[in-house]
Design a protein that fits this description.
This protein has three helices and four strands. By secondary structure, the protein is of the alpha+beta class. The chain has a domain of about 80 residues. Strands 1-2-3-4 form a four-stranded antiparallel β-sheet, sandwiched between helices. It is elongated. It starts with a helix and ends with a helix.
């Protein structure tokens, strides 16, 4: 009668020992970033842009894309959102990345054009 509990205990110990050995031999996760997923990157950057707006829910994006022309990847496109008075500003170009954050209304036209030509190229 005691054979079943002893057998089950032995099997469980073997299974846990095998899992422990496997876990100790498995390679550690790499600290290197994986390949860039453009769709997820665009969604994440759009969420960051929304955080900077007075009315994040009002943001409307169009023609946005991920550009890797120069340096770190940046998101380029057009954005329409409500200002502090509650009115939409109209679609304006934007460039958003780790080292650049330009909106059409906040940037002089010649500077936006220069940065757009330098950083924004459709894949």
């Amino acid at each position: 009668m005691r054979r079943v509990p002893v057998f089950v205990t032995a099997v469980l110990l073997v299974v846990f020992a095998a899992l422990f050995v496997y876990a100790s031999l498995a390679p550690q996760p790499s600290s290197m970033p994986g390949p860039l997923d453009p769709v997820r990157h665009l969604a994440a950057e759009e969420a960051r842009i929304r955080e900077t707006l007075v009315d994040p829910e009002s943001a409307k994006f169009r023609n946005d894309f991920l550009s890797r022309k120069e340096g770190a990847p940046v998101v380029c496109g057009e954005l329409n959102y409500k200002n502090s008075l509650g009115g939409y500003v109209g679609f304006q170009r934007f460039i958003w990345g780790p080292d650049i954050r330009l909106f059409g209304l906040d940037t002089q036209a010649d500077e936006m054009t220069r940065q757009w030509q330098a950083r924004c190229v459709r894949p």
